[in-house]
């Protein structure tokens, strides 16, 4: 009788703990892969936004050159049919 209590009281709870341990390791492994995918997606998003920002900078530079040309001779710039 004492052996039955020993088996049920000591060995059974230990055997039940192991599947949970392996399940949590599997879940943590999945979480690491998900985190890696998230970081990759974040880097792709940042790259896309940097590309957009680069296009805006180029557009601003063109406008700056155009404004610089226009302010040197405003009457001549506005008087030109293409610029009017």
TrEMBL record:
GO CC terms in record: endoplasmic reticulum
Coiled coil segments of this chain: none
Keyword Signal: yes
Record keywords, A-Z: Signal
Signal sequence annotation: 1-17
Pfam family, one: P4Ha_N
GO molecular function ontology, one term from the record: procollagen-proline 4-dioxygenase activity
Protein name from the UniProt record: Prolyl 4-hydroxylase, alpha polypeptide I
Domain Prolyl 4-hydroxylase N-terminal: 24-84
